[in-house]
Amino acid sequence: MSQTVDRALSILPLLAEGPADLGQVADRLGVHKSTALRLLRTLHEHGLVYRQSDQRYRLGARLFALAQEAMENLDIREIAHPHLTRLNDACGHTVHLAVYEEGEVLYIDKVDSRYPVRMYSRIGKPVAITVAAVAKLLLADLPEAERRAVAEKLDYPMYTPRSTPNAPAFLTELEKAREQGWATDLGGHEESINCVAAPIRGADGRVVAAMSVSAPNVVVSADELLTLLPLVRRTADAISGEYSGRNPVTNPGRDTV
Known about the structure:
It holds the Pfam family HTH_IclR. The protein is 46% helix and 18% strand.
């Protein structure tokens, strides 16, 4: 039975490459055409493959509906939280998770630092969109035209001398974040607070959330915080893998940090 299931599931990535006829499916699986036909018929009955008028098979609409339903029911906060907690255990600093919704970047999770100094950020509160590291990553993933439109509509308050002053400068920072795959806020919102962030991606490679580690200068310098970048990126990659279904969840996040 397990071999039959394995063969049936092996048909799906083949058809993801494009329509294929019975012979091509049989050849790819290394089975007789009659065996391939039985598997295709079963998948067809469940709507996972569709037989075209030219007798070739392609992926069925039911498969896409199931994928969409699964994505809609995924809770990125629930998936990410154990990873954020382990990262906090490893470094001791404040860890945030943020998403972009309706023109705002919002914190949806936070794990406080282990030392007495606390950040005033709150879950559900919009971030300072023109300077926050998580915001840079989320906006950097937008299509270029949308990215420019958003940047031109924003106000650019100078929270500190290091704040982003205008739309051209902001777009430059977004392009940098897009190219390097991470972002920072080094005193742009509060002079005494530094932050390094990494993106969390879905199955299609698009950024669905961003996570960050923040710490005050009295605890660690900006350079010291930047040494945590590999750890932050590994954590984000682990969350991405679990969220997109690329990584097994036998022991979630164990190798995150």
